[in-house]
Write a structure and sequence with these properties.
Helices cover about 45% and strands about 15% of the residues. By secondary structure, it is of the alpha+beta class. The chain folds into two domains: about 110 residues, 2-Layer Sandwich (GMP Synthetase, Chain A, domain 3), CATH 3.30.300.30; about 90 residues, Non-ribosomal Peptide Synthetase Peptidyl Carrier Protein, Chain A (Orthogonal Bundle). The strands form two sheets. The protein has a three-stranded mixed beta sheet, with helices on one face. Strands 1-2 form a two-stranded antiparallel sheet. Helix 3 runs antiparallel to helix 4 and helix 3 packs across helix 6.
């Protein structure tokens, strides 16, 4: 790849050309460009895609493209924002005119907020909020789409190990990056002892609220 096609986001080196190449391998994609843009104060990856056929359901196509990329690339290299265009803008020389690519609609990347319910979900949500500097975080929210990366994963895992006394690997968060899926895995690993501790904690909190 060309030097100017390599970028760094939150300390992670990203080859934009590699993401574009993977997108172009997908049968529904005719043209693709991936750029880094400032979205809501964060540097984030944005994919611009020209589909082979007219797009009737952008969300379905976006999810299909993301799913295929996740099979080929690390989570942090999968664009958060997606813009579908009839054609990519070109300069008079016939090269991609990145300056005139439209800004993405940040609201499309946001999930419906589903509040964490169990004590474990609330505890993990509080840690994510502290580490990511984003709140509120709900069960459908995706760690990497909120700006998370491998260094922050290590921070979350080490804090959970201290607070829960569990042996965890960072891999668990890469495999289950939404709050709901990740806490479900923790509950499975925690076993009955931790579950009993959390039930006692919940009962204690209920008692305290009554005073």
């Amino acid at each position: 790849g060309r030097v100017d096609h390599q970028v760094k986001i939150r300390g992670l080196r990203i080859e934009l050309g590699e993401i574009e190449a993977r997108l172009l391998e997908q049968p529904q994609v005719r043209e693709a460009a991936v750029v880094v843009r400032d979205v809501a104060g964060h540097s984030q990856l944005v994919a611009y895609v020209v589909a082979v056929q007219a797009v009737s359901d952008e969300q379905a196509l976006r999810e299909a493209c993301k799913r295929q990329l996740k099979g080929d690339l690390p989570e942090y290299m999968v664009p958060i924002h997606w813009v579908f265009l009839a054609s990519l803008p070109l300069t008079p020389n016939g090269k991609l005119d990145r300056k005139v690519l439209p800004a993405p609609d940040a609201s499309l990347a946001q999930k419906t907020y589903v509040a964490p319910c169990s004590p474990l979900q609330q505890q993990v949500a509080a840690i994510w909020q502290d580490v990511l500097k984003v709140e509120p975080i709900g069960l459908e929210d995706h760690f990497f789409e909120l700006g998370g990366h491998s260094l922050l994963v290590v921070s979350v895992v080490s804090r959970l190990q201290l607070e829960l006394g569990m042996q965890l690997t960072p891999q668990l968060m890469f495999q289950h990056p939404t709050l709901g899926a990740f806490t479900a895995q923790l509950e499975q690993q925690a076993g009955p002892v931790t579950a009993q501790k959390l039930d006692k904690l919940e009962a204690l909190l209920d008692e305290m609220e009554e005073f």
